[in-house]
Amino acid sequence: MHSRAGRDLTAYLPDVCAALAEHLPAGVILDAELVCWDMARGRTAFADLRRRITAGRGLAAEVAQRPVHLVIFDLLRDGRHRELLDQPLAQRRRRLQRLLSGAPPQLALCPQTTDPDLVQAWFTDYAVAGIEGLVVKDSGKPYRPGAVGWKKVRRKTTTEMIIGGVTGTATNPSSLLLGRYDTRGRLRLVAQSHPVKAVQRSELAAGLQPMAFQGNGAGHPWPRPLPAGWSMNLTDRKPLPYVQVEPLLVAEVEVDGVIDGPGRHRHLCRHVRLRPDLAPDDVAPLCP
User: Fold this and answer.
1) What angle do CA 179, 183, 187 make, to 5 degrees?
2) Pairing of strands 107-109, 68-77
């Protein structure tokens, strides 16, 4: 089991790998996505999936408490070691359906349709479950590794967040670390932005006020550097250096609908503009 970046994840997914080994012949290569489901919240939980990477000796307990599913959407090599990359998607799909016939629920076939009404229903109704959008593919196309032969359609909206830190420097901010206050008045990290455009950096720098501390930075609600466990990246285990700033500026950002844990946005957001007309207390608080 390898991540998109090539990292071996096998050791963290003994339950998924056991299901694959039991049901599928050796030599099969699949394109799929890992999903952890939060029964209490009724939605996907990326934070729970990431716990597999950081669990250490507690991995067995994580496996028992938070099972992971593999949602499979393509077949690249079959059980006879035949490469299927040059076959059209429709043909690979038929082979995949036969291969997964009788598979356990842990190995799920990703739904697919050509019905535009059903597509619109998926796009609208599945957002509450943490589904970020749709992937549109040509059923007659082959599979081209490393090439974009499809289009991802994400749900997008804008919202306001409080700037609590920046990567880079306060005079030349690279990206924003963004938060919202919870019901106890604590600023919680909820998102990180993509790199900020050069034309926006001077405006941000003019308003940012770096915080001065003694010792290790006590007084700011977030540790410095940010621990690896706070990252939105599944496999990144490196702490993130950043500059702590006074949480005085409100930014309007573009986000998708994929939220994990207490209002945490799984994917990077895009900084749209500063909102000097809003104070931090005007930003909607996190719901418990």
Assistant:
1) 25
2) parallel
CATH number of the CATH domain containing 71: 3.30.470.30
Q: How many domains does one find in the chain?
A: 2
- Nearest partner of 66 among 104, 40, 33, judged by Cα: 40
- On the question of a cis peptide bond just before residue 247, with omega within 30 degrees of 0, the verdict is no
Residue-level pLDDT, tens digit, the chain, 288 residues: 988 878 899 999 999 999 999 999 999 999 999 998 888 777 787 778 878 888 889 999 999 999 999 999 999 999 899 999 999 999 999 999 999 999 999 999 999 999 999 998 988 888 777 777 889 999 999 998 876 778 888 777 889 999 999 999 999 999 999 999 998 889 999 999 999 999 999 999 998 988 765 444 457 889 989 887 776 665 566 889 999 999 999 999 998 877 776 678 888 999 999 999 899 999 999 876
Looking at 98, 120, 153, which one is the last position of a domain? 153
Q: Is residue 5 part of a domain?
A: no
Question: Which structural domain, as residue segments, surrounds residue 111?
Answer: 10-153
Which pTM does this prediction carry? 0.65
Give me the phi and psi of 123, to 5 degrees please: -60, -35
**Identity of the amino acid at 43:** R
